[in-house]
Design brief:
The protein is α+β, with helices and mostly antiparallel strands and 342 residues long. It contains 14 helices and twelve strands. It starts with 8 loop residues before the first helix and ends with a helix.
C-alpha cells in the first residue's frame, strides 16, 4: 500500500506494525515483523530521518546520573508521526512526479506524430510476428484510459485467449468503457460462452451480428489495430496499427454502425443469450398460453381449455422461455412484463 509513496516492503512492515501500538522498541517490532533486530533498527533510523517516526519521550524514563552510571541503557522507543502530517509530503512528491511523467509522455507523443521525416509511419505501422502482434495488442488494451471498441470473429487469434482475457479484465477494473461486437461464429469456440458470461457480469457490453468484415481493437479513439489475413500465404501473423487519421475515423464509424445494428447479449444462469429481435416476438397463441400460465392455471387445464395437447403447451412455453432467456417460469413472467408482451 505504501510502496506507491516510496516505502519498501520491509519499511512498510515496520511502519504498519508501529501503527498498531503507541510506542515500540526495535526488538519488539523485530519480533512482530519477523525481521532481524539490526535491520529493524536501521529501518527505524531511516524512517526517523524522513520524519515518519520519532523517538518517544516517555514520562518517568529519566534516570539520575548516579543510578545510571554503569547501567545498560534500555533500547529506544519509537512512535509514529501523525500520518496526515508525515505522509502528505510524500503524496505530493509522487503526484508531482506523475504529472511530470504525463507531461513528458504528451510531449513525446506529439513530437512523434508531427515528425515530418516519416509521414506515412505517423499514420500507420505494420507489426509482424506472433510476439510483436501480442505485445502491441496488450499495449493498446492496457493503455486505454477511457474506451475500448472491439470486433471479434471466430478465426484463430495471434493473441492467446487467456492473455486477451487478462487484458480485458484489467481494462474493466480501471473503469474503461468496453464495448464489443462479436460475429456469431465467435461464440462457437470452446469455453467462449463461459468467458463472455463472466465478462458481461464484470461490466463488458457485447452485441452479436451474423458476420463482421474484420477483427479490430480501437483504443481511446487514438489508435486501432487490425490483423492482416496471412492464412493464404502461410506467413507469420501480422497486423497494422492505425494512428489518429481519417482512416481511424472510418474504423470508429464502422464500429458504431455495426454496434447500432447488433443484438445485445445478456447473461443468465444457463449461459449467454441474444436479445429478441422484432421478427422473434411471441405469437398470439404463445401469449395466450402464457397469460393462462401466469394466472396460475396448470398445463393440463390450459391444454384442455384451449383445445391443445400437453405437448403443444409445453413446446410453446419452452419457446417463450428461449425467447426470454429465462431459466424458470417466474423469470419468464418478469421478462414478459419488462418486454411489454401484454
Amino acid at each position: 500500500m505504501l510502496q506507491a509513496l516510496g516505502l519498501g516492503l520491509t519499511e512498510e512492515a515496520v511502519y504498519t506494525a508501529l501503527l498498531a501500538r503507541p510506542t515500540a522498541s526495535a526488538p519488539e517490532l523485530a519480533r512482530q515483523t519477523g525481521l532481524e533486530e539490526s535491520e529493524t533498527t536501521r529501518i527505524l533510523v531511516g524512517l526517523s530521518a524522513r520524519g515518519l517516526v520519532a523517538i518517544a519521550a516517555e514520562a518517568g524514563s529519566t534516570v539520575p546520573d548516579s543510578a545510571a552510571h554503569g547501567a545498560e541503557r534500555p533500547p529506544a522507543r519509537y512512535r509514529l508521526t501523525p500520518p496526515s502530517v508525515a505522509l502528505a509530503p510524500l503524496l505530493v512528491e509522487q503526484r508531482n512526479a506523475l504529472h511530470r511523467a504525463e507531461t513528458a509522455f504528451s510531449m513525446l507523443t506529439e513530437q512523434y506524430r508531427s515528425t515530418a521525416a516519416h509521414p506515412a509511419g505517423s499514420v500507420m505501422e505494420v507489426v509482424v510476428g506472433v510476439e510483436q502482434v501480442a505485445h502491441r495488442f496488450h499495449q493498446l488494451q492496457r493503455g486505454a484510459q477511457r474506451e475500448l471498441l472491439v470486433f471479434l470473429v471466430g478465426e484463430p487469434n495471434a493473441v492467446p485467449r487467456e492473455d486477451a482475457d487478462a487484458s480485458e479484465s484489467s481494462a474493466l477494473d480501471r473503469g474503461v468503457d468496453f464495448r464489443v461486437v462479436a460475429a456469431k461464429d465467435y461464440l462457437d469456440g470452446p469455453d467462449v460462452g463461459r468467458d463472455v458470461r463472466e465478462a458481461i457480469t464484470a461490466g463488458l457490453e457485447i452485441r452479436l451480428v451474423d458476420s463482421l468484415p474484420l477483427k479490430m481493437v480501437v483504443s481511446d479513439r487514438e489508435r486501432a489495430m487490425v490483423p492482416l489475413d496471412m492464412s493464404d500465404s502461410g506467413g507469420e501473423p501480422s497486423a497494422i496499427v492505425v494512428h489518429r487519421s481519417g482512416l481511424l475515423t472510418a474504423l470508429v464509424h464502422l464500429f458504431e454502425k455495426e454496434w447500432e445494428q447488433a443484438r445485445p447479449l445478456y447473461a443468465t444462469t444457463t449461459g449467454v443469450h441474444a436479445a429478441v429481435t422484432a421478427d422473434e416476438q411471441p405469437t398470439e397463441g404463445e401469449l395466450e398460453v402464457l397469460s393462462m400460465l401466469l394466472a396460475g392455471i396448470s398445463d393440463r387445464r390450459v391444454a384442455s381449455q384451449l383445445g391443445l395437447s400437453i405437448r403443444t403447451v409445453e413446446r410453446r412455453t419452452r419457446r417463450l422461455m428461449d425467447l426470454a432467456g429465462a431459466d424458470s417460469r417466474l423469470q419468464l413472467g418478469w421478462h414478459a412484463a419488462r418486454a411489454g408482451w401484454f
